[in-house]
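The data layer described in this paper is built around a simple, fixed record for each protein. We quote a single record here, exactly as it is kept in our systems:
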Amino acid sequence: QVQLVESGGGLVQAGGSLRLSCTASGRIFSINVMAWYRQAPGNQRELVATITRAFSTSYSDSVKGRFTISRDNAKNTVYLQMNSLKPEDTAVYYCNAGVYSGTGYLDLWGQGTQVTVSS
């Protein structure tokens, strides 16, 4: 079974940093775009950052300059380094990946990890 497992969330004070990780496991041939989304209570899920297999990146305006997405293709892992965190960054963060597996193409989501930024 192919799945994404996230780690690295937690509680941090405003101005602090956290690093999220998300690893794909199972019978994987390759992974296309990997991304991080977030969803705060009462809000829709929003795209935070994306990275292609060739390491091209994009960011939402709200995190540009503070967050950095990266990936390790050999480890099937995507990271989100979050610096200068603000209370409005508080949300459940989800990773997403387009995975070519033994059963075909899969659009996978992680289970989510809570990030809480206190003021």
The chain has a mean pLDDT of 96. The radius of gyration is 14 Å. The CA atoms of residues 7 and 21 lie 5 Å apart. The longest strand covers residues 28-39.
